[in-house]
Amino acid sequence: QVQLVESGGGLVQPGGSLRLSCAASGFTFSTYAVNWYRQAPGKERAWVAQIISTAASTKYADFVKGRFTISRDNAKNTVYQQMNSLKAEDTAVYYCYTQGVWGQGTQVTVSS
What we know:
Largest sheet: 7 strands, mixed
Oligomer: single chain
Mean pLDDT: 96
Distance between the termini: 40 Å
Order of helices and strands: EEEEEEEEEEE
Number of strands: 11
């Protein structure tokens, strides 16, 4: 079955960077778009970014545009999210999502 496993979260200071990974299995990874979402404490889950199957197109929520970059390596069945210039408000659990399946999430905490 479809399985998604996120990693790369952690504690980082404001202005810092992290790279999240989402390792996929159980389906033909290269033929599907993948999304990143996040959920901050007390808030609803929010869409962050999307990359289509060929990586020819990416989309971003306005609140991360210019700071986050989504990419994928179809040979490794992995999607990445490079997060730069992190702010306290980026603190959340980050999830990848495709085909109705969510990963378990990885915690990102931005704090001094």
